[in-house]
Amino acid sequence: MADTVSDLTPSRMPSILPILSVNFVGTLGFSIVVPFMVFLVTDWGGNALVYGLIASTYSAFQLIGAPILGRWSDQIGRRKVLLVSQLGTLVSWIVFLIAFYLPTDAILSIDTALLGQFSLTLPLVVLFLARAADGLTGGNVSVANAYLADITDEEHRTADFGLMAMSTNAGFILGPALAGLLGATLLGEMLPVLAALLISVVASLLIFFGLKESRAETLDNKPGLSNACKVFGQETKEVYRLKGCDETDTTSILQLPMMPQLMAVNFLVMLGFSFFYIAFPVHAATRLEWSVTDTGVFFAVLSFCMMMVQGPLLSRISGKTPQGLLITGGGLVLAFGFVLLFWDNLLSIYVAALCIALGNGLMWPTFTAVLSKFAGETYQGAVQGFASSLGAAASIVGLIGGGLLYDWATSWVFWIAAGIIATAALFALAIPEAENHSDP
């Protein structure tokens, strides 16, 4: 039987190493396909718009799945939901792998001024299905953040979220680097997908064997206590009643202190980053004429710099620098980094990578820590799920819009991304220093 909440006193708080490991391995599996995805889509008949649509498919289905998974994690426990989410990712990689064995004959050909020229092929359809399956169960990040919020204390919250972001970027370092190496073999792009599938198996095993439940009170069957709220009409057992379980709709979440401002920043940052993530790989492959290895090296360097900022640097300054300054200042530096991508020379691009790493490394972990504080203990899963859902909506707009805009405006799209991030940084000025918010 898992420990009850009363046993989880600060002196017995679980180690954050298991959740960092799960986060690292999950990110590694995702990031290993980043450098070559655009090349794969192009080989199978797509263009920048199709690449954006495929990328946004994950976000579209995450928009459906993330809030559900977040609420479930409040009710039945983080560990179970993380395991379901990771198993969904495993299935998606299996479906992805099937696409390599299908014929690439065109099902439908499009050639218009608005959409550009591309062909819809069977591998692209299967790739859409794979991304949809992963997105529907894509609650990994929001539930992992809620798990970390459960087990960390106020003194170390910002630093611990920095370590979480550091583990994410460690995965993003190794993933693209492995993709560059594996993609150069005779198996080409298939080998990184096989590697992602195996990595997903490892992540599932880490969750099953290495992760303890952080919300043990939701698991104990205690006779005589009130029923927990039902999950989509399923029969419930007698457990501890979860405060706020029936009230965590969108309106209730937005009534929490500073939540509208925080969600606005969350939306704008995800929107600006989505423009970058869809436009830069296309920019690298077409205008810069980079190879898979060149793209992998860039993302590996970017992630390494982010890891250094979010680890050693943020740990040193998080308790000494106002959180609002870290969010706003980091956002402005990030926006400047996007501006530098407008120029095609290698020096400008790698200076941009340093600015992006510094800006995002200071801003995002601080923002997630502030968000978790204003959410309070009871609503962590619901708030994180809603934030993830809102981020998914921003990603859908940014990924599809970024693909279209790059076809029309090429590298000017990076100026648009910079303007969006700068606006988010100014919104963050309205957010006060986050105190320890107890549940109402």
The total beta strand count reads 2
Discrete helix count: 15
| Overall mean pLDDT | 77
Q: N- to C-terminal separation?
A: 30 Å
Portion of residues in helices? 55-70%
- How would you name the oligomeric state of the polypeptide chains in this document? single chain
Strand order of the largest sheet: 1-2
SSE sequence, one letter per element = HHHHEEHHHHHHHHHHH
Shape, please? globular
| Main sheet record | 2 strands, antiparallel
The rounded Rg comes to: 21 Å
Structural class determined from secondary elements: mainly alpha
Query: Which range does the strand content fall in?
Result: under 5%
Description:
The chain is mostly helical and 440 residues long. It has 15 helices and 2 strands. The protein has helices spanning 17-31, 34-43, 48-76, 78-99, 122-136, 140-151, 157-182, 190-210, 250-254, 259-286, 292-317, 323-340, 346-375, 380-409, 413-427; strands at 106-112, 116-121.
Secondary-structure blueprint of this entry?
Elements: H1 17-31, H2 34-43, H3 48-76, H4 78-99, E1 106-112, E2 116-121, H5 122-136, H6 140-151, H7 157-182, H8 190-210, H9 250-254, H10 259-286, H11 292-317, H12 323-340, H13 346-375, H14 380-409, H15 413-427
List keywords for this structure.
440 residues; mainly alpha; two-stranded antiparallel ribbon; 15 helices; 2 strands; globular
Give a short summary of the structure:
With 440 residues, this protein is mainly α. 69% of the residues lie in helices and 3% in strands.
